[in-house]
Design a protein that fits this description.
It is a single chain. This protein is of the alpha+beta class. It has one domain (about 5-130): Hotdog Thioesterase (Thiol Ester Dehydrase, Chain A, Roll), CATH 3.10.129.10. It is built from 2 helices and 8 strands; from the N terminus they run H-E-E-E-E-H-E-E-E-E. The strands form 2 sheets. It has a 6-stranded antiparallel beta sheet with strand order 1-2-6-7-8-5. The N and C termini lie close together (about 10 Å).
């Protein structure tokens, strides 16, 4: 699946609540961005942890779907994240790498960058469970 198709599918599923956009998809990789206007700021003037985690999770999901097709019931089975530095209240960008794609599990590595200088703010390992019956994968 390519950038345009992924963005269309995500928009149809999440309608108004999808703050991120797929910007790149290539072999075993995908990149998503959240504009500064959509980041949630917590006290102290930094981006909230849940915002960073949601972006990492979404990037992992997108890289998996980009390689297996539209299987919306692929779900997170594990997410481990390290917050490395305080993200400024600016845009966030996540790049996900598909490390292993099996029949039932997909393992990804996600790096989240913040601001215009693309400072690494978080590093995550995300595993997705892929349903045995992929249902509408060809849709």
């Amino acid at each position: 699946m390519g950038v345009d198709e992924l963005n269309e599918r995500l928009a149809s599923v999440f309608e108004e609540v999808r703050p991120y956009a797929v910007t790149e998809v290539w072999e075993n990789h995908a990149t998503l961005e959240v504009p500064a206007s959509s980041v949630v700021i917590r006290p102290g003037g930094t981006v909230s942890g849940p915002t960073v985690m949601a972006l990492a999770d979404a990037a992992a999901w997108v890289v998996v779907l980009a390689h297996i097709g539209w299987v919306p019931l692929a779900v997170t089975s594990n997410l481990s994240i390290n917050f490395l530095r305080k993200p400024e209240p600016e845009r966030l960008r996540a790049t996900a790498e598909l490390l292993k794609l099996g029949r039932r599990l997909a393992v990804t590595h996600v790096r989240v960058f913040g601001g215009t200088e693309d400072r690494l703010v978080a590093d995550a390992s995300v595993t997705y469970a892929i349903p045995a019956d992929r249902g509408n994968a060809a849709d």
